[in-house]
Amino acid sequence: MLQNSSGLYVPEPLFRPGDHPSFSDLPIPLAGTVERPPVDIHPDHIRDLAYALIRVMNDDHQAIGPWNPLLDSDFLIRGLRAMMLTRAYDARMLRVQRQGKSSFYMKCTGEEAVAVAAALALEKADMCFPTYRQQGLLIAREWPLEDMMNQVYSNSRDRLKGRQMPVFYSSREAGFFSISGNLGTQYSQAVGWAMAAAADQDRRIAAAWIGDGATAEGDFHYALTFASVYQAPVILNIVNNQWAISSFAGIAGGERTTFAARGLGFGIPSLRVDGNDFLAVFAATAWAAERARAGMGPTVIEHFTYRAEGHSTSDDPGKYRPMEEPNAWPLGDPIERLKAHLISRGAWSIAAHDALQKQLETEVRAAGKASESHGTLKEGERLPPSSMFDDVYKIMPPHLEAQRKQAGY
Amino acid sequence: MAHKNMIEAINSAMDVALHHDPAVIIFGQDVGYFGGVFRATDGLQRTHGAARVFDAPISEGGIVAVAVGMGAYGKRPVVEIQFADYIYPAADQLISEAARMRYRTAGEWWSPITVRSPYGGGIYGGQTHSQSPEGVFTHVAGLKTVIPSNPYDAKGLLIAAIEDDDPVLFFEPKRLYNGPFDGHHDRPVQSWAGHADSEVPDGHYTVPLGKAKIVRAGRAVTVLAYGTMVHVALAAAADTGIDAEIIDLRTLVPLDLESITQSVLKTGRCVIVHEATRTCGFGAELVALVQEHCFYDLEAPLERVTGWDTPYPHAFEWEYFPGPARVGEALKRVVEV
Fold first, then answer.
1. Who contacts B33 (Cβ-Cβ below 8 Å, separation ≥6)?
2. Would you call A189 and B102 a contact, using CB atoms and an 8 Å cutoff?
3. What is the pTM of this model?
4. Which of residues 96-115 of B touch A (CB under 8 A)?
5. Predicted confidence (pLDDT) at residue A167 exceeds the cutoff of 70
6. DSSP assignment of A379-406, as one string?
7. What is the per-residue pLDDT across B235-272, written as a single tens digit (0 to 9) for each?
């Protein structure tokens, strides 16, 4: 709908606190209706995919259509487990933050498939450049929860030595690049990593994530430009969860076009995917990975999803959107949808699901106890404060040695 | 050993680095086929191939971001920002990312990148081809800042910077590219030919980062300078006949505090000279350090001769540029106390 505006037009979300959200006007294409082109297709021939929505699971929980990745049940249960573990981990980390054992936390509720399905579609040696909301990558790559918690607690076993706020994980071994508080910066760095891999004729590829809000950063533009110019083997994921803290996606420029469509202007094949459909995210990532690995260059993937909870433990979404909006979201919940799909295949049951849920909660609790035995932010063991002067440079320069001495260490 | 001007020395440093280490990769605006707007990368793409020396889009933030990513992969990127005046779009990547990578990952990742950038005035470059932004970056923990003043040091320092595993900003005084410049703009320009520091070895050598150099020994006053101002200070000493000890700092971070204090404890006087604007410039840090370490041996207040606290003007080049007359007056004031 085109509308004239007299004066400055400022986009507003559909619903504010007190409204009754209904997304019945939101066009949700049927599953299985989007074509799956060959990976070597010219980007000009699939421009419509940037405006479509790749969906595999239909309303009856069947996997249908050309994007169906035809994964076996054991593999899908692995994915389901990683998503459930991610959610259970988030739940505990929120609780310990409320108990004052850590300073901060960020959940990824509703977005578990975006990270977990992608991780399982990539090879383990591929390098991920995540934001702070892709903890599912680490969990899907079976990185120890206890190690993640040590970081959240900044305790004596924190591999980052208490220098980073909670959730800013880093693990070279897990192919999980260091998270920065500065939004978008890792997006363009991922392209550099991929360019370096290409220069070495390495078969590893890079994958990057950015939120809908941060696409407005300059680094988003840098990343797409360099990825396109040098045909870097990189997957450029945009996680459109509708919200950037309190700003709806319209404030990031999402009101008149899709985020996937941004890739078209750079000549990059661009897909738009149901981010709550594990199978669709897997299939799109696998398609993009195949392109990158074959030397066909970058792919943009917009994952259409919804941030089901607050931005962080410092945020109260009830101040800017209706509390029931997450329940009204038409694409549902990624865990519930994969669960239903597996049940419909006869490969899973409510009893098995509940048992797994209990088992994962026990696992998280055990990891939590083990981690807390190494200290939390305010209690127990911690690293010597003298370590805060280390690693600024490879070799400590004289002025830092002097300051360390002055501080009494 | 061959005579080289500063551009040739810098070009030679990159050529040596490319031969020495397959991880070295060079890119920037106009850096590849054309060889750079100042010719610093002339011939490198031809010798080493386009996969190692290439042109980049006009995107300073993107150039440095990509370098950081390549550094994380295991490359040793040497990138060019065409003028230091245009480094600001890359500030986020330099300050928030490159500088902190080693610290925030406790050594798991680091940024072994070198950012070369022509800097400084004295060329009628106006507001956006003359700036000296070193103070913006010396304030950032995790970055190293290097500024050479002659061809020999330029090559040795640049190789050392490229081989360094920390991110290094390498500011090249473009006024010195073709010859030493002492601020006497009314005299004919000189070339590096015949200058002792233009004898540059062809092969690999380094000048260590973090070490200053006494370019003129003296007893009356210590002058702390870097880049073009080293030559201005030498001219001021010659013009006034004051027996100044002139120290070329060469590296601002990490700073060679020992050479500075040794000299000031001997002379009891200190003048600091830089082209950058005064307020919160690197000179302020030098004043503070000398005061802290040499207070009881100081015979006079410390003086700073710097650019004025204005944007760099075009028509008033020589009224802005801290030339030998202004430096000479400061020397006189300090020794006459």
1. B45, B55
2. no
3. 0.98
4. 96-97, 100-110
5. yes
6. SS----GGGGGTTSSSS--HHHHHHHHH
7. 999 999 999 999 999 999 999 999 999 999 999 999 99
Residue B334's H or E segment, with its range, is helix B324-336
One-letter amino acid of B9: A
CB contact (8 A) between residue B62 and residue A398? no
Residue A2 has pLDDT above 90, yes or no: no
Nearest to A178 among B62, B105, B142 (CB): B105
Q: What's the 3-state SS for A24-92?
A: CCCCCCCCCCCCCCCCCCCHHHHHHHHCCCECCECCCCCECCCCCCCCCHHHHHHHHHHHHHHHHHHHH
Sign of CA dihedral B244, B208, B210, B325: positive
Indicate yes or no: CB of A199 within 8 angstroms of CB of B75: yes
* H or E element that contains B60: helix B60-73
CB B1: neighbour CB atoms within 10 A?
8
B129 is catalytic: yes
For residue A222, the chain B residue with the least C-alpha distance is: B62
Name the E strands within A195-276.
206-211, 234-240, 243-244, 247-248, 270-274
CA A198 to centroid of chain Cα atoms:
25
Distance CA A368, CA A146 (A): 6
Bridge partners of A238?
A210, A302
**Backbone phi, then psi, for A223, in 5-degree steps?**
-60, -50
Distance CA A36, CA A46 (A): 9
Distance, CA of B213 to CA of B207 (rounded, Å): 10
- Whether B144 and chain A come into contact, CB under 8 Å, resolves to yes
B229 SS3 class = helix
* Identity of the residue in A159, A197, A394 whose CB atom sits nearest the CB atom of B106: A159
The token pair at B187 is 């005299």
Alpha-carbon span B18 to B24, nearest angstrom: 6
Structure tokens at A304: 């259409």
